[in-house]
Amino acid sequence: MSAPGPGSSGGWRARLVRLPPLLWLTAFFLVPFLITLKISLSDAATAMPPYLPVLDWQAGLEGWSSFLEALDFENYAILWFDSFYREAALSSLAYAGAASLVLVLVGTPLAYALARAPARWQALLVALVVVPFWTSFLIRVYAWIAILKPEGLLNAALLRLGLIAAPLEILNTPTAVMIGLVYAYLPFMVLPLYAVMSRLDGTLREAAADLGAGPVRVFLTVTLPLAAPGIAAGALLCFIPMIGEFIIPDLLGGSDTLMLGRVLWSEFFSNRDWPLASAVAVLMLLIVIGPVVLFRDAGAREAGR
Amino acid sequence: MSGSSAPLLRLEGVTKRFGGTRAVDGVDLALARNEVFCLLGPSGCGKSTLLRLIAGFEHPDSGTIRLDEADITALPAHRRPINMMFQSYALFPHMSVARNVAYGLDRLGRVEQAQRVETLLRLVRLDGFGERRPDTLSGGQRQRVALARALAREPRVLLLDEPLTALDRALREETQSELRALQRRLETSFVVVTHDPDEAMRLADRVGVMDRGRIVQIGPTSELYEQPASRYVAGLLGDVNLIPGTLGPDEPGPTRAVETAFGELRARAPAEPLEAGAAVVVALRPERIVLAEHGLPATVAERIFLGGRISRTLRMADGSTLRASGSAESAEADPAGAPVHLSFAAEAASILPA
């Protein structure tokens, strides 16, 4: 995706090396995106495929011009003016933002503990963070239903302990969605953070302690600022897919949980409105590109300093 | 040395194990006020661990560390009035020079802090560099920032881990005299760790030579150089001839005879009593050998002119060689291959256990 750097431009060998990723991105990202973009500019129709216009190859130039004339931004106007879609977008941003914040708060100490663990334990502990990936994502989310439902494991345990008198309503609430998001994305937060933190120079912490800083001040003034790039990378790595998350809000959230992924699904499968669904997909991409560009600029500043 | 005669820092029986090995093994050490003490030894001898024990980054398995008679053995690093200048300097890369120096001054008010930072930067001749980032400084400048930062809290003891190693030769000589001048001015005690005998001799009042976790000899550098207690110490501090031999009979007086392959020598009697007939080595510095009218016969095998002095390789009667170095004046008298006689003052050579 990135432009070729200086020095990589020379020779057919270098160009050959760049070819496979270029072909891959063209075939599996650029072409599907262009198709989606085109559909988003079309109108829904009861037909096969369920949208208009379809390019008439036989009509030649005439066909092209009528094809292009039929494209418009009507679906984007709907997204903009219908508050339902605006709310879905804002709600997605809110869920992803809040969950990213919780992930930073939970993931940072966890990654720090991993990085400071005795060397012989670290490989095992990191493996434990990754182990959940060996089970299907869908099954793990279903497991949370079993835990969170009114007669589920959590309520049974709390009732047994006498901490609550009646089962808590957690499933089908925003809380359940947050729990699901934080649970599912924690490894994506912890791993890049751990990578940064385990590479931090330990003598800097010692120097800070030597100058009278207690453990808390050492962490806040030395470890945390130096780990900031890892925190940003982890948060971004979680934020982006959470914007479009579908399974977690669908299974754990109530029927009123609004998230773009869910809206997209229902437009596509329930309403069979492919053009509007495509417009939602393009909108999602635009929302996600913002933070990526910000992060890349920050990275470039850091590198160029 | 000021008022109190009690040592400033005292280590008693300090031992630190890592796994099965004793990195520091029963070290006793007393550091006087205003003293520059140097721990000298090759890498892995335990000198850095000992420094880290004094700093508080490690805690001993047994033994006590006292500062001004107060037991600080269990005190964590951030509570000790001891600061360290790290070998890598360990400057905080995300802070300006001024904020690095001010890091230990968080108890002071903003204005006081700024004044103190300015004073410290002037002390290390870096005024005007406060807003710079450490990665824009040269190695020598970074070292001076590290020094200013370590001095900011006016430590009772300043620990310096290989302070000159990372600097080039010209800068080293300048820096070592600056360090000495600074130490005299601030009246702080320094503990320097180094593997470089030259650095030790330049900086230290006293040197402790370490070997496998133990301090094997302590004394002023001149004493360690002239009167080493072991082959290890003799070899560590500069060039030395080690001549194997057999110890002669016990006799009164400061010197004893040693029978070697090329004749009998006399040298300073060993510090610890050794039986007559014991295998020993005679440690003899090259510059202590003089060419004379009488003495042990030898031939000049090689002669190298080194400007101020001449280095000679002398072949002895049994075919073994000794290195001798002398002033360049006598250069014409003994061309290569010339027969010569050599002698040395008995007190200048040491008899050491083989």
From TrEMBL, chain A:
Keyword entries, A-Z: Cell membrane, Membrane, Transmembrane, Transmembrane helix, Transport
Membrane topology type: Multi-pass membrane protein
Transmembrane residue ranges: 22-41, 93-115, 121-145, 152-170, 176-197, 218-243, 274-295
Keyword Cell membrane: yes
One GO cellular component term noted in the UniProt record for this chain: plasma membrane
Entry superkingdom: Bacteria
Major place of residence: membrane
GO terms, biological process: transmembrane transport
Localization, UniProt: Cell membrane
ABC transmembrane type-1 domain sequence ranges: 89-295
Keyword Cell inner membrane recorded: no
Matching InterPro entries: MetI-like, MetI-like_sf
Family: Belongs to the binding-protein-dependent transport system permease family. CysTW subfamily.
Name of the featured protein: Putrescine transport system permease protein PotH
Automatic annotation (TrEMBL), chain B:
GO biological process: putrescine transport
UniProt entry tagged with the keyword ATP-binding: yes
Domain ABC transporter residue range list: 9-237
Alphabetical keyword list: ATP-binding, Hydrolase, Nucleotide-binding, Transport
E.C. number(s) listed in UniProt: 3.6.3.31
Entry keyword ATP-binding: yes
Gene3D superfamilies: 2.40.50.100, P-loop containing nucleotide triphosphate hydrolases (3.40.50.300)
Any one annotated GO CC term: ATP-binding cassette (ABC) transporter complex
Enzyme class: hydrolase
InterPro entries: AAA+_ATPase, ABC_SmlMolc_Importer, ABC_transporter-like_ATP-bd, ABC_transporter-like_CS, Mo/tungstate-bd_C_term_dom, P-loop_NTPase, Transp-assoc_OB_typ2
Gene Ontology MF, one: ATP hydrolysis activity
Family: Belongs to the ABC transporter superfamily.
Protein name, UniProt field: Spermidine/putrescine import ATP-binding protein PotA
Species whose genome carries this gene: Methylobacterium dankookense
